[in-house]
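Q: How would the structure tokens look for this protein?
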Amino acid sequence: MVNFLAFYGTVTMISDFMIGSNGEGEGCYTLMSVDNGNGGSVNFVVSPTTYFVDNALVAVGDRVTGYYDGDAPVPLIYPPQYRALVIVKENPNQNVKVGYFNSQLESNDGQLKLNVSPFTQILRTNGQPFTKNPANRNLIVIYGPTTRSIPAQTTPYEIIVWC
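A: Here is the predicted structure in token form.
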């Protein structure tokens, strides 16, 4: 189980990020700086394995949420530098929740419960169908309206299983 933590803000810079001294991997990694407008900023290391919801192209000025592993070691620098696992570009037509969902398909923070319908697409990160039960897994959930209950309930448009 990944301890997904999030940081939301505006992309202020995107630049190449070198991971080795011999040029290996050159152009494959980028550093994305994000500012939340309240004095907080982070740098996300974006790797070839970083999952971009909807394959969104992100540019300077876009509003994004970056998800990272809160239990992963990080260098003690400012601004903090995290390895981005998932990047979500803001879209007013959909909501995204990233986290662990238990056997009842309730998020680990108790804020969202999923009611899966036959029309809900359940996929792996490579876009291929996921044919097993998505419960007790890390999920990327794309959804629209929710109930006003606690936890809020929704029928997701799409579930991406983080295998």
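The chain has a mean pLDDT of 95.

Residues 95-161 form one domain.

Upvote if useful.
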